[in-house]
C-alpha cells in the first residue's frame, strides 16, 4: 500500500514538473516570436523610411515661381529686319538661361488679326494680352529709324519696356544709345540681361 502511494506521488510530481517545463518553453517561444516580429516590423519600417527618403529627394527643395513672358515684335524693326538686324532673339535666348523665367515663342497664329506691330506702350497691349497667357510683355524698339543712306555712319541704340499683363503697370528697363555698330547692341543686352531680369521680378 505504501509502495503504491509512493508511485502515485512520483507520477503526480513528474506530471507537475512536465507541465511547468512545458509552459515555460511555450512562453519562451511566444516571447521569442514576438521579439522577432517586432524586430522585423521595425526593420521594415526603417527600410520603408529609407526608400521614401530616396524616392523623395526634392521634398526640401524650394518650388521655383516661373515667370512667363513674350518679347513683342520690335516696334520699329521692319526696316531693320529687311537688313537682317533683329535683337529680339538675343533677348529671348539670354532670358531663357534663367531658371525662373520662361520666354514663350512669339504666338503669330494666336495674334492673327491683332495689331502687334509698332507697339511700344502699354495702352496698345490689351488686345495682345487677351490672346496670350503670359505674366509679362517685353516691348522693344531701335532708338531711331533706319537710315539706309547713311548706314555706315549712323549711330545705334535700343530701348526696352516691361509691361505687367495683369496690372498693365509699365517700366522702362535696359537701353543704350550712340553705339558705333549694331553688334554693340547685342553685346550690351548680354552684359545687362541680369538688370532686365531684376526689373521683371520687381514688377511682379
Give a verbal description of the structure.
Helix content is 46%, strand content 17%. The protein has 204 residues and is an alpha/beta fold. A five-stranded mixed sheet has the order 2-1-3-4-5.
| Number of H- or I-type helical stretches | 6
What's the N-to-C terminus distance? Answer: 109 Å
Largest sheet: 5 strands, mixed
Strand order of the largest sheet: 2-1-3-4-5
Mean pLDDT: 83
Class from secondary-structure proportions: alpha/beta
Helix content: 40-55%
The number of E-state strands comes to 5
Q: Could you spell the SSE succession in H and E letters? A: HEHHEHEEEHH
Dominant shape: elongated
Gyration radius, in Å: 40 Å
Beta-strand percentage range: 15-25%
List the helices and strands and how they pair.
Layout (H helix, E strand, L loop, with lengths): L1 H54 L11 E5 L6 H5 L5 H8 L5 E3 L22 H6 L4 E7 L13 E9 L5 E10 L2 H10 L1 H10 L2
Parallel strand pairs: 1-2, 1-3
Antiparallel strand pairs: 3-4, 4-5
Keywords:
about 200 residues; alpha/beta; 6 helices; about 45% helix; about 15% strand; elongated
Amino acid at each position: 500500500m505504501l509502495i503504491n502511494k509512493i508511485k502515485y506521488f512520483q507520477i503526480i510530481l513528474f506530471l507537475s514538473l512536465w507541465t511547468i517545463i512545458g509552459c515555460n518553453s511555450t512562453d519562451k517561444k511566444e516571447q521569442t516570436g514576438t521579439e522577432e516580429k517586432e524586430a522585423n516590423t521595425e526593420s521594415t519600417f526603417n527600410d520603408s523610411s529609407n526608400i521614401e527618403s530616396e524616392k523623395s529627394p526634392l521634398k526640401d527643395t524650394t518650388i521655383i515661381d516661373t515667370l512667363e513672358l513674350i518679347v513683342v515684335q520690335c516696334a520699329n524693326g521692319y526696316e531693320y529686319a529687311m537688313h537682317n538686324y533683329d535683337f529680339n532673339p538675343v533677348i529671348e535666348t539670354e532670358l531663357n538661361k534663367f531658371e525662373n523665367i520662361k520666354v514663350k515663342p512669339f504666338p503669330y497664329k494666336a495674334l492673327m488679326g491683332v495689331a502687334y506691330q509698332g507697339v511700344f506702350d502699354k495702352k496698345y497691349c490689351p488686345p495682345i494680352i487677351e490672346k496670350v497667357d503670359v505674366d509679362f510683355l517685353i516691348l522693344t524698339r531701335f532708338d531711331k529709324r533706319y537710315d539706309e543712306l547713311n548706314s555706315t555712319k549712323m549711330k545705334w541704340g535700343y530701348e526696352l519696356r516691361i509691361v505687367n499683363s495683369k496690372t498693365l503697370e509699365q517700366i522702362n528697363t535696359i537701353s543704350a544709345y550712340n553705339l558705333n555698330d549694331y553688334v554693340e547692341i547685342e553685346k550690351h543686352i548680354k552684359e545687362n540681361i541680369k538688370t532686365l531680369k531684376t526689373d521683371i521680378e520687381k514688377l511682379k
